[in-house]
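Q: I'm a student working through a structural biology exercise. My instructor gave each of us a protein and asked us to get a predicted structure, then write a short paragraph describing it. Mine is TetR family transcriptional regulator. I'm not confident about reading structure output yet, so if you can add a plain explanation after the tokens, that would really help. Here is the sequence I was given:
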Amino acid sequence: MMNGFEKRASLIKEKIMKTCLDMLRTTDLRGIRIADISKKAKVSQVTIYNYFGSKEALLQEVLKAYFDNIIREFEEYMNGGHTLKEKIEHIIFLEKESYKDISPGLIKELLIEDHELNQYVEKQYREKAIPLTIRIIEEGKKSGEISSDVSVESILAFIQLYMNQYETILEMAEKSGDMDQFLEGMVNMFFYGLCGKR
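A: Happy to help. First, here is the predicted structure for TetR family transcriptional regulator. I'll explain a few features afterward.
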């Protein structure tokens, strides 16, 4: 149980992190300064340095919390009562919602610059997202919704291909004029191929 001081400290830390995350949504990485975070969060720069030590450490903590939240929501969705097609769509376009949040380009830049953060995200992906995805695929194979001729490995590879081209697909979807319809078409092709349902 937190005492009054710890609770207050936790709330201040949360406010600083939320302000930083909000700024990541609209500001170029180079444009984010402790002075601006301090002004927007209405706390002193000294307070920010006391809690986080540096801008880099603050960004790392903010992004770790951000990815933890994405993984938690992913797990909740996968364990919810959704159809296999909805689950596959969610896996492929997991970033569709977070793209509106923080651009994949910025996330990529942060991951290149911060080796520890990159390792953390890789570990979360490897230990949580991949096993859950494999479980969903295996359940689909058991129920006959996924062909027994297709291996789990090849489905994972196919999903990876989609995810690697995610930025390009999103740009095309935005240019199409109807993003949701475009992405729905991509999911249908992933799921049923060019010939559609038979």
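A: Here are two points you could use in your paragraph. The chain has two domains: 1-53, 56-192. The mean pLDDT is 85. It's a good idea to check both against the output above yourself.
Q: Great, thank you!
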